[in-house]
Every structure is written in structure tokens, then in C-alpha cells.
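Hi team,

Filling in the usual template for the complex we talked about on Friday. All components are listed, including any nucleic acid strands or ligand strings, so the model treats them as one assembly.

SUBMITTER: L.P.
PURPOSE: interface mapping
COMPONENTS: two
RESIDUES: 545
SEQUENCES:
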Amino acid sequence: MSPPKVTTLAEAIARHVTDGACVALEGFTHLIPFAAGHEIIRQGRRGLHLVRMTPDLVYDQMIGMGCANRLTFSWGGNPGVGSLHRLRDAVEHGWPAPLELDEHTHAGMAAAYCAGAARLPFGVLRGYIGTDLVAANPRVRSVECPYTGERLATVPAINPDVTILHAQRADRQGNVALHGILGAQREAALAARALVVTVEEIVEEIPPAMNGIVLPHWVVSAVARCPGGAYPAYAQGCYARDNAFYQRWDAIARERDGFRAWMDRHVLGSRDHAEFLASLREAA
Amino acid sequence: MSDWTRDEMMTVAAARLLWDRCVCFVGIGLPSAACNLARLTHAPEIVLIYESGTLGTRPQVLPLSIGDGELAETAACVIPLPEVFSYYLQAGRVDVGFLGAAQVDRHGNLNSTVVGAYGAPVTRLPGAGGAPEIAAHARQTFVMLKATRRSFVGKLDFCTSAGFLEGRGARASTTARGGGPRAVITDFGLLEPDPQSEELTLTALYQGATVDEARNAVGWPLAVAASITSIAPPSTLELDTLRALHARTREAHSRPVQLPA
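RESULT (copied from the run log):
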């Protein structure tokens, strides 16, 4: 892996996210890399295989803007609010493009990331019991335990071409520190061929943190400073989740025209994340 | 004319099923309200686990998402998500799993994936999330769902999470370690599985609800227990606590967030 590099988000995306790549933007409700998703939209990537346990608004936006043709996921709603209307439109009506689904359970995806991080071919779990997901997804299979004979579910390892995370901070060497709700970020990061991280701040020395994790510099491909990069999700200790925005998104994304107008104005109409946040402040 | 709503009654009835010190895997929505109502009333030491990895959390307001900062800030500890599912849930360290769904059938199987065919859905729903493994491995599950003929159906469009499968012991022959649904809490009362057939049976009604109402709301010929329990209406403490919790939550979720500069 090439040496870690502190760079801009635009350069990191241009270099590491190519058309047709398998890309995982992880972060379980917390630390969702929205700024990176918006930059991928601005750079017009197409044909991506998107991977994320909970697609959330960030993939609703990327799918609605035509970046993806395949989605690996385990729960695709707007948490506490309802549907992701752009994801639904793609699945139900093929708009703006058909979307192939590779659908799992949370436990299954977690096992697939763990296997990917360990460079094993598959993850194993006592899961997918009695569910029609097994018939719907031929990638979910089973294996007989060589010790007990028990039939266990298997999922193929997930090894994204690039995983993208948002974190609270990094140092100049490219060590990345995150804390709070961690989801499967560590596993998704270590499963990937390249790792791009946006951070709230770049510091001289990473402070010790209870329950924090560090991704060491030699597994990190690029780091970009991007304050507010998880908004409207949140960064523990920096800013809160904008629950009111998640509620408003239901109306913004419900119709194609309204969605496109919002994306044109706030995402395509801004050069970077700072301008995106400024455009929301103006609209407020 | 009662001074409480059926939504409130459902939440209170679900909360009463929980006991102090039980370890409870919580879903968003009505289950989250019920679990926190239990914690704020008769079960102060209940251990609430949200799948985001927050263990023993004590939120002041209900989270909108499964991973709001409130859950992390008030948790006993925060662990990575793969550990929640493998070391706690699959390992059998969860007493109660709370599940919602779009559809339930007479054996407590749940659909949260699609209405219509999987390959050409009429309505694409959010999907499985943690539910299939919660349904498999929690020692028991409670299902919370309002009853209509579209939600309580003779045949699921898609089985996302297994209850008793076809009933009569079908579940016991799988590798699921948990006991399956112990009750469905709905807006007329409770359904519980018959010990032999494992078919959901009407066992309890709220004040003002009737057997006919229940039968009309369910899309299969509903089995009715020989004796029906009448569920006591919400107490003043339960109602006041629940309404204060919802008021705090509404205020918190509408509070403007300071955008990062």
C-alpha cells in the first residue's frame, strides 16, 4: 500500500474511487461520511457497487443521482422516519437505473466484513435461520461444522476496493482515531484494498480516548480534513445528529423532481463540503 | 371514553411484560418507548441493548435512530457492532428481543422485507436489519404491531424472521437457540402462542376492546383462549411517565443543530 497522505477530499476521491468500483462508506448512524458521498456525486462516478449495512440518506442520495448499479446492505430505511424513497424508486421502478440487491442481515454483514478483514474467503454464523433471504440471495450458503456436524450459514467475505470512513481526528502520519458508536467501521476499513478517511481535525498527537480505536497509518491510504463531514449524521464530541433534517428528508426525497432540485442546489451547486453546509445555513 | 390512546396502552402493556434486570435487545419505535417506560417505572435496572453497540444505555429522550449520540453518552459501555451480534446475541446473552414488522402470520413469523414478489416488489420495505438473528437467538421475543388485515395476514409475502415457522414444533428442529415469540402486543390486546399448535391465540384484551374487534382486525380465523384476561388501563404513573418521555423527545428532536463551521 502506498504511503499515507494528507490530501484534499476531492483528490482522494479522484484517485481512489473509479467507475465500477466496489465502495463501502461505513459508519453505523454515527460518523457517516456524507461529505465523501457528495464528492463522489460531484465527480460523477457511475456503476458503483455500493456496500453499507444501513444505506441511510447518503446512499439514497448516491443511488438517486445514478452512481450505483449494485447494493450490498442489511437494512435500508430512514431510521425512525420510514422509507428511503430514492432506494425504493430504484428497486421498484428502476429509476434512475436498475439496482441489483445483495441483501443480508446485520449479523451476516458483520461476519462478511470480519472475514474480509482477516482475508478469509467467507464468514460463518448461526444465522439466516428460517428466513426467505436464503432463497432470495444465492450468496448466502451453508457449511457443515467439521467438529459437530451442525449446519451453519456462510456469507462471502466483503473486500471493497475502497472503504471510506469519517473520524474525529487523525495525526500528520495518517493514524486515525475514532470513538463513540463504532458500527463495523474497523472491520470494513481492514477488509478494503484502500482506505480513505475524512476527519474533523488533524492534530499533532492523538489524545488517549476511552473505548476509542486507532487505525494505524500503514492501513490508511488517504486522509482529508473535512469539518462537519458527517453532517447530517454526527460526530460524537463535535456535533449532534440533525434528527430534524432526517425527518425533513422524507419530503425532500419523496418525488424525483424535488429530490433533483435539492441535490442540484445544495450538492452539485457547491464546490465542497464547506459550501454545502453554507448553502444549508442560507436556506434555513 | 378513556383518557388514554391505544398507542399508549400498547406501550404500557409491552412495558409490563419486562422485568427488572432483564437483558433486552431494543428496536426503534414502539419497542424503544416500551423498554424505556419499563426502565423509568418498575424495572430501573433493566439492561437495554441497542444494536449500534450501546450496552446498558439509559437515554433521557427516545432516540430517533438506533445509534443516536444520546444512547452512547448514557451507556454503560459501547462495543463494536460485530461483537453485539456474535458475543452477546448469538452467544445467548439476551433475555428478550423486541421486534416490529410490516406483517405477522398466525405462527409469529415476520415480514419486514417486501410487499409483493421479492424480484418485483409492490412496496420495498427497509429489510431485515438485526431481526432474523434476534428472532433466532433471544431467549424470547415480543412482537409489537398494530393489527389490520394487511399486517396480520394469512400468508406472508416474504418471511424475514422466523417465529414458529409452520408450528407444531417446526422451530425446535432448527438451529435457533431462542424460544421464539412469547407474545404479540397489538392495539386490541395480546396474542400468545398455543403450547401445542404454536398458533397465536387471543389471550388478553384492553379495556374497551372486544373479541369481535380482534377477529375483524386479523386476516386469519383467530383462535381465542377459553378465558380472556382483561388488561388494566394505564396507571397515572405509567401515563405521566410515558407522556413526559414523549414530550422530552419531541423537544429534543426539533432542537436546531448547530452546523459545524
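MY TAKE: The mean pLDDT of chain B is 95. The domain at 6-252 of chain B is CATH 3.40.1080.10 (Glutaconate Coenzyme A-transferase).

Thanks, L.
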